[in-house]
Every structure is written in C-alpha cells, then in structure tokens.
Amino acid sequence: MPSSTLLAQSVLSGVFSGALYALMGLGISLAWGLLRIINLAHFAFVFLAGYLVYQCISVSGWSPTLVVVLALPLFFLLGVALQWLFARFSVDEFASLLVTFGLTIVIESLIQWIWTADVRRMETPLSTWSVKLGPLYVPVVEAILLLVTLAVVVAAWAWLRHTYVGKALRASAQNPVIAAAFGVSHRRLAFVLSGVAAATGALAGVFVAVGSPISPSQMFGSLGVVLAAVILGGLGNPLGLLAASILIGIAEALTMALTAPSWAPLVSFSLLIFILVLRPDRV
Amino acid sequence: MGTISRKLGLQLTGLVCAVSAALVTAAAVAATSGAPVRVGGTLALTGPLAPTGLIHKIVGEIYVEQANKRDGFLGRPVEWVLLDDQSKADLARSLYEKLVTVDRVDLLLGPYATGGILSAMAVAERHGKLLIHNTLGIPKLAKYERQIPVYSIGAVPEQTLPATLFDALAANGKTPKTVAFVTSKFPSVHFMSVGARETAKKRGINEALWLEFEFGTRDFGPIAARIREANADFLWVGSIGLEGNQLLEALKKLDYAPKNPFFLYPSPGPLAQSPDAANALSMTLFEDHAPFTNTPQATEFARLYRERAGKAGITYLDADMQAAVAYAAWQTLEAAVTATRSLDDAKLAQWLRANRVDTLIGKLRFDGAGNYGDDLQKIKQVQAGRWITVWPREFAPPGARMNLQ
C-alpha cells in the first residue's frame, strides 16, 4: 500500500501537470469556442516561444523578464496575423483543423532548420529547485506555473464575463447576425481574441522551456491530452478548462502512483469518452 | 646574396608544393572515376528520432568524403542517396522500395532504430539486397540471411548486458542488495529490462520496485516519488532518449539522488551534460577516449566528428557510440566491397558472414545466430560532464575508475 506522502506528492505533481495542460489549452479553447477555429498551430506557437526563450536567455544572455515582456506582444501580433489569414481566406472550422496542422508542420521544420533536431536544455537553477513543506517537496517552477495559470485563467474568465469585449465575443459566438445588429464587429474582436490566445501560448512556451529539455517533435507530445482537457472543460470556458486539466493531471498521477504508470495515458482519453457519451453537446 | 637565395628557395618550395598538391588532387580525381557507386538509405532527419539521426548523417558525410579522397569504392566515387524517413517505420519501407526500384541504388545501408530497420529489411529481402544496419535493438527479430548487424550487442543482449553490468558492480565490491526497475514499454527497451530483471533474480538481488511507463510519458513526478520510496541500492532505468533526463529532474525535485542509476539508451549529450547525472551509468561500444581512439583512423574520425558536430549545432561534441556504429557500418560495407571487388549483394553477404571486419568498435563477425557476433557492450559512466568507459577495465582511459555508492 503506498504511503500517504507518496499519494500527496503524486496529487501535487498532478496539479502541476494539469496547470500546464490548462495554460497550453487556454488559447485553443478560446479560439475554438468563440471563433470556431481549431488552432492546432497553437502547439507550434508554444514550442516556438520555448525555443525563442531558450535562445534569448541561454544563448544570448538576455534578462528573463525582458524576454517575457517582448515575447507576449510578439506572439499577440502572430495571433492577429493568423486570424487575418483565416478571415482573408474564409477558413471554416473543419478547414482550420487541416490548415493549422499544416502550419504546425511548417513551424516544426522552421524550428529544426534554425535550432537543429538536437535536444536543447535551458539550464537555470530554478529548473530543479524545490521547497520542502512538511513531508512534501514543492518544485518552485511548477509552483510559479500554477500561480501564473490561475491568474491567467481567472483573468480570461473575468474578461469574457465582465468586460464589453468579452460579452461581445460571447454574443458573437452565440449568434453573429444578432450581435452584428447590435454593432458588434466580430472581425475586430476576432483579431483581439486570436492575439490573446497566441500570447497565452507564448506564456506556456516559457514554462515548457524552463521545465524540460525540448526538441522540435515534442510539440505533438501533449496534443492529445490537452485537446481532451479543452473538450472536457467546455469550449471557450477558461474555468472549466482549468478544472478539467487538473482533474486529468491528478487522475494520471494517481494512476501512476497506485498502479502501473503505463496506464496513465488511458485515463485522460477514458474520461473524454465517458464525458462525450454522457454529454455529446460539449463539442 | 643570402637573401636572394632564401627568396628563391622559398619560391621553389612553394612551386613544388603547388605542383604536388595539383598532382595529388589530379590523382584523387583520377582514382575515383566512372559512374558513382550509389549507396542508398534513410535516416530519421525529422521526428522524435531526429537528434540521433543527425549524428548518423554527419558521420555518413564524413565517411563518404574520406572514401572519395581515397579510392572510392572499386575506383568509383561514392554517392550517398539519403532520404528522410521522418522517424516513421512505415515511411522507411516505402522509401527503401523507392531506393531499390526507382533510384536503383547499388547498395543499401540501414536506417536508424529498430522499427525502421525491420521495415527496410523486409524490402531488402524482397529484392535480395544486402542490408548493413547499425542499431537493431532486438536481435531475435533479424531473420533475413543477407542482413548484417554492425551493432555488436550479441544475439541475446537481454542476458549478456545485465550480466556485464552486474559483474562490473560485483568487481567493484558493490553488488546491490536491492534493485528498482523502471522501464519504458518501448519494445527494444522493454525486453532488455525484462532480461535485467531475470538476471537480478538469478543473482539473488531483491526487487524493490518494477514500474513500466509508456513511451512519451511527460510527467515523471509520481514515478520519481515511487523510486524515492523504494530507495534501492541500484536503479535500472530502461529509458530511451530524454526519458532519463526527465526522470532525473523529477527525482532532483524530490531532493533524491538515486544510488548508482543505470540508463539503457539515453540521449548521450543531454545526460552527460546534466548536473544531476554525475556517475550515471550506461552501455557503450565506443567513446571518444583511449584506448578507442588509439588508432590514427579513430583519432581522425573523432577530430572530424567534433568539428562537424559543432558546425551542425550539436551541443555534445564527443564522438560516442552512435557516431561510431554509424561509421562502422560504412567500414563494413567498404571492407566487403574491397575484398570481393564486387557490388553483388549475394557475394558481399557471403563474404561478410565468413570474415571478420576491423571497425572503430572492434573486430566484428557476422556468423552467429541472426548473423550476430560477439557482444562487445561495455559500461560507461558520466564523469565531469563526459562519458567515460569504466568496464571492462581495459577499455577505460588511463587513471579512470568506476565511481559507485
């Protein structure tokens, strides 16, 4: 029988994994739910940001704060540009899946061309630094990730819930024609939302680069589980995404702690199938 | 007068050098004339296996360049037709079919890693081609008589490698009382871990933990917590690629340094350069130090590899086992072509199965079960950010010893 410390440590690990899933999935959830764009290139944005962060901090020696401050507007503009292309070529929901998958491959090749296929590791003392709380070890980077994710998710929820732009976005997603009759410009709002979504991807990229070694093909590694969290959480629903991500993270971690770790990947998809059977209206 | 003579002397020397250089170049060009000998193969230049595929590509380019500076193959220049299999075994199959039927290459070299090699082997068998390959991890799957495994791990590595490893621990007075096994379910890794588990059992070592995880696992936190709780004397990590690094980092976050960890197939650079991997063990066939680099050819290879790897943006510049087995595959191919004076696949395969070939990783033979020869695997250890062979002792560089807890 595993000890209570092992179980508690595993739950903590699951919460941190869930936080990363949520931060990676937020941009996808917003774009899918409110713009009806399934943006698989979001994973490529996350890794592109990760590589840029690695390059600026580890190779060029820039300040981490400066890099984050520059990366967020840069990726906001990237998101706007992508949305402009979608609007220009009238890309619909299904086509966006194919187009963004192609774009992901292009960005993967670009990353490999610039940084090669060799593994890159951003060495910082923070990467493996932990704080002991009672019998538990709390990794500092993951703790920061959790706080940032909570802040971003709550901010996204509040933005959609309480601001004019958020309300207009939700109205436009529900009924574009009626929303337009009330003076809502879906086109402009879509630019803003797409930019915000890409910027959250850049933020996730920072934690991906700090948290583990990276190589170009890894961008597909989290695709399945993040999409599962996005669907489970409800499209365009930041709080639902956070809850689903942490649920999946904890379920995976407890599976690893209590049974064979090789069963963990089954958990997220079993949960997804279960929810889709019960609630097919979530997509 | 003296100055004029010296100037004249220098000019004459320069002229002689220039003429000699021109003659050598002309001789080299003349030596490799006629239609090129086309050697076809694929490598994982993109996808998850690309970090290692890149090493094989660099080595192949070095070898072809060196061969063409000598006599090529049979006096003809060597041309390497290299395609990207994207780390996909199914794509490797199609590309080898193309290499044989469309590109009509003269000779084949295998791709990187077990899955791709098995795909290529099926195509080679269909066309009766010789297939020299260098990284097939599961020898019992090699059934084709014209396949030549340069990856000299013996026919039953799942028995011989664990035996070598536990012998090394015993010889250093550190036979573990307990062992924790953590292994990926990646096929060529898993069967080795099963073999190690059986070996430990036969030697009376208690199993403190047996964990299997899926290839592609991202969160090693709970696995690390279980390893910490088991706290065994020895940790066998059946890992491939970055899994070893990810596990070590997860352990570090729990403030736990495993005693004597062994990593089966790590990414050599990232693990050697990890601050958490000091004294980590692994297997090898070649490392960039004496006695492996005692020959002029090996020294030159290590120098060239270091230079090219640096230019290609690789962070770990020592020529390690992957680089050496890639080179050994080309050496084996050239040895067979030179000895038989032929490009005939049947003749080449027959010669290779009857003769030994001198390579960077040792003298290879291909006359055992599945054409495998001796198990030449050794044990290496991370010491001061580099991989150093530590067992058998005769392969350790002067002064090096195995550091164990």
Please characterize this protein's 3D structure.
The complex is a heterodimer of chains A (283) and B (405). Chain A is an all-alpha fold. Helices cover 75% and strands 3% of the residues of chain A. Chain A is built from 11 helices and 2 strands. In chain A, strand 1 and strand 2 form a beta hairpin. The longest helix of chain A is centred in the first third of the chain and has 32 residues. Chain A is globular, with a radius of gyration of 19 Å. In chain B, helix 2 packs across helix 10. With 405 residues, chain B is α/β, with parallel strands linked by helices. Chain B is globular and about 65 Å long. Chain B folds into 2 domains: 232 residues, Response regulator (Rossmann fold, 3-Layer(aba) Sandwich), CATH 3.40.50; 149 residues, Response regulator (Rossmann fold, 3-Layer(aba) Sandwich). A 5-stranded parallel β-sheet of chain B has the order 2-1-3-4-5, sandwiched between helices. A 4-stranded parallel β-sheet of chain B has the order 7-6-8-9, with helices on both faces. Chains A and B meet through helix 1, helix 4 and helix 10 of A and helix 2, strand 7, helix 7, helix 8 and helix 9 of B.
Could you give a short description of this structure?
The complex is a heterodimer of chains A (283) and B (405). Chain A has helices at 4-35, 41-59, 64-88, 93-115, 140-162, 164-174, 176-181, 186-211, 223-233, 238-258, 264-278; strands at 130-133, 136-139.
Question: Spatial order of the strands in the main sheet of chain B?
Answer: 2-1-3-4-5
Largest interface, chains and sizes = A-B, 48 and 43 residues
Give the second-level CATH assignment, the architecture of the largest domain in chain B. Answer: 3-Layer(aba) Sandwich
Our Rg estimate of chain B from Cα atoms comes to: 23 Å
Main β-sheet of chain B: number of strands, strand sense, barrel status?
Answer: 5 strands, parallel
CATH fold call of the largest domain in chain B: Rossmann fold
Q: Within the largest sheet of chain A, what's the order of strands?
A: 1-2
Indicate the overall shape of chain B: globular
Count of runs of 4 or more consecutive helical residues of chain A: 11
Largest sheet of chain A: 2 strands, antiparallel
The CATH superfamily title of the largest domain in chain B: Response regulator
Separation of the first and last Cα atoms of chain B: 73 Å
Oligomerization category of the chains in this entry: heterodimer
Helix content of chain A: over 70%
The poorly predicted ranges of chain A are none
Number of helices of chain B: 12
Uncertain regions spanning at least 5 consecutive residues of chain B:
1-8, 12-30
